[in-house]
Amino acid sequence: MTAEIEIIRPDDWHLHLRDGAMLAAVAPVSAALFSRAIVMPNLVPPVRTLEDLRAYRGRIAAALPKASRFRPLMTLYLTETTDPAEIARGAASGDLTAVKLYPAGATTNSDAGVKDFSRVHAVLEKMQEAGVPLLVHGEVTDPEVDIFDREAVFIDRVLEPLRRDFPGLRVVMEHITTKEGAAYVGEADGNLAATITPQHLIINRTDIFKGGIRPHFYCLPIAKREDHRQALRKAATSGSAKFFLGTDSAPHLSALKECACGCAGIFNAPVAIPCVAQVFDEEGALDKLEAFTSTNGPGFYRLPVNEETITLRKVAPDEAIFCPVDAGEDGRVVVFRPDRPLEWSIVAA
Ligand SMILES: NC(=O)N[C@@H](CC(=O)O)C(=O)O
Ligand SMILES: [Zn+2]
Ligand SMILES: [Zn+2]
């Protein structure tokens, strides 16, 4: 069957662009399709100050094709020494879109993150006042908590108390992976929203071990049981304005994933929209696709919706293309590839 749909040009509300040769390799991939992206600050060293942020934005601009109109929306990495005045300045100048909270040790390049949440209260106060959203990697780091429970426990131990202390703070629970996450966000007031990744709509934890260990299905938070995947698909396709696409496209050199202690992170930028279109098609919810990819995100971030559109077409499965991305002199990055054929492709962007 051939079908075609036109949707408002998508934005990516959670993206890792990295730096150096990797930035040069991956920035054009996202910029070819997405209009804007929330750029994650977990570089080494992290993006801690407005000076770092502006310098990084300059390096991103330099990595884009000349005619590109892609707009990186910049974030700061929250540490226990972040200066509240820096938040106020960033909000006033318009350079700062959001602040990212990594519990220290929770994920890739999170060592400089927060250990003691009481030490960031003054910053959160300032963000609440200035209307700057807090983006959270929602997993506890307590080694006693099973890795598959860390998101649900984070809601009880960290997120719920934090939202009680700062009821006016706007929060995005990034890359939710559980039915608890979907329910918590779905029932909350309008100050809480969530991003969902393509991979968490497509794979469950069993897929990570299908036929052997599959490093390119490993990201954090790790994929959960099938009932959680189903809950995420329901949330994404529900039409609720609280859920929107954040690809969490997170490239690592393949040598650093295909080894004895592989990095967490899935590079999906080239296939994110075809993957999501397929999920919505399977759920009989193509009429809700545009809300998830293109209008719910701007709604939460109080930004205008994009004016341009893109066209997607359902094609014969073998027409789908999976190109490895060359990350320059250092090597290759493997693109996320679901085990079943991809049936949607982008025909006009
Ligand atoms: N998602 C991941 O598994 N990895 C991300 C970090 C993150 O988003 O947690 C990365 O930077 O590689
Ligand atoms: Zn994360
Ligand atoms: Zn991420």
UniProtKB/TrEMBL annotation:
Keywords: Hydrolase, Metal-binding, Pyrimidine biosynthesis, Zinc. Zn(2+) 2 binds at K100, H137, H175. Substrate binds at H16, L17, R18, N42, H137, L220, H252, A264. Binds 2 Zn(2+) ions per subunit. PANTHER family: DIHYDROOROTASE. Homodimer. This is Dihydroorotase. It comes from Jiella sonneratiae. The lineage of its organism: Bacteria, Pseudomonadati, Pseudomonadota, Alphaproteobacteria, Hyphomicrobiales. The gene is pyrC.
